[in-house]
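Q: what sequence does this backbone want?
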């Protein structure tokens, strides 16, 4: 393998990610770290500069496959941050060690997060959930393993009704579940001890990007004095997004909301179906990760620890506006 050549493993892994043969945040992150490990192990670069160039070329090739998947650049950033040394062998050793460390931490991340989140749940607590999050379920599962009784009010989460998946899994864990329509959430907030939601991404200022409806739920929870806790592994942290209002919100097909015959019967209307919204950090009480529990404003410090000092401080670089967030997307 000559300088700047990509290892066969990198090409294969990149192809699998691009074809969505490898999918899911954790699986993509694990595959990306393994690809850099393979590149480092098999490199026959003769100089440190050539070795670094090879690894960066591999990272670019991987990043091109799914540029909007937050876990992918996070895995690459974690490994490349640990690529240091004055010789090829030192660079190789440190890069391989960084990749293996990342994969080991990833392997234990959800269980570790579950233990952190379970500490917030007391025996007899009732939670409210939104959408479907395996990180949220990990918190509840650990609490149940600790012998705590937990009940849940589960929002259906229209239009795809992912809340029903959450309800099914909670029942399997021995949780007493009440399923409600989304618009009934405020009615029941006084009856719950925590709102517990997941995240698709978290910006450097602590803004939470999650399934549409999360932002409104958080506003209502704050008004009722109900704590809202976000459960998310650190691979969901997005150091490239300083504030949540910079996130481009995906819009899904209108067929999820209304079928063609009904649409035609109504007449000339527009249908919007945003998939996510942004919850400003002022509405979030805590973000639970495998590294511990953090207030939103401290997330940037965790990002720096994981991804390097290049992560900008949103509280210095860009003052948070009282107007940004999901309602303004």
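A:
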């Amino acid at each position: 393998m000559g300088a700047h050549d990509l290892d066969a493993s990198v090409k294969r892994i990149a192809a699998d990610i691009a074809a969505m043969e490898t999918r899911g945040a954790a699986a993509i992150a694990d595959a990306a770290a393994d690809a850099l490990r393979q590149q480092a192990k098999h490199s026959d670069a003769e100089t440190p500069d050539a070795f670094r160039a090879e690894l960066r070329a591999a990272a670019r090739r991987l990043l091109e496959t799914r540029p909007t998947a937050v876990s992918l650049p996070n895995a690459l950033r974690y490994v490349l941050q640990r690529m240091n040394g004055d010789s090829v062998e030192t660079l190789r050793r440190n890069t391989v060690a960084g990749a293996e460390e990342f994969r080991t931490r990833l392997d234990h991340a959800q269980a570790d997060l579950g233990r952190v989140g379970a500490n917030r749940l007391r025996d007899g607590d009732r939670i409210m959930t939104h959408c479907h999050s395996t990180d949220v379920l990990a918190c509840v599962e650990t609490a149940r393993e600790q012998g705590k009784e937990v009940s849940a009010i589960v929002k259906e989460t229209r239009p795809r009704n992912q809340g029903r998946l959450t309800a099914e899994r909670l029942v399997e864990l021995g949780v007493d579940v009440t399923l409600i329509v989304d618009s009934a959430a405020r009615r029941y907030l006084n009856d719950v001890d925590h709102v517990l939601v997941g995240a698709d991404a978290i910006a450097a200022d602590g803004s939470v990007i999650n399934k549409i409806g999360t932002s409104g739920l958080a506003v209502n929870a704050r008004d009722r004095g109900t704590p809202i806790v976000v459960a998310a592994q650190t691979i969901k942290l997005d150091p490239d997004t300083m504030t949540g209002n910079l996130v481009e919100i995906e819009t899904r097909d209108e067929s999820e909301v209304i079928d063609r015959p009904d649409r035609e019967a109504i007449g000339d209307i527009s249908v919007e179906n945003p998939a996510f919204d942004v919850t400003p950090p002022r509405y979030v009480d805590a973000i639970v990760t495998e590294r511990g529990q953090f207030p939103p404003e401290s997330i940037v410090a965790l990002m720096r620890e994981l991804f390097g000092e290049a992560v900008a401080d949103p509280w210095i670089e860009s003052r948070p506006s009282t107007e940004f967030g999901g309602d303004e997307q």
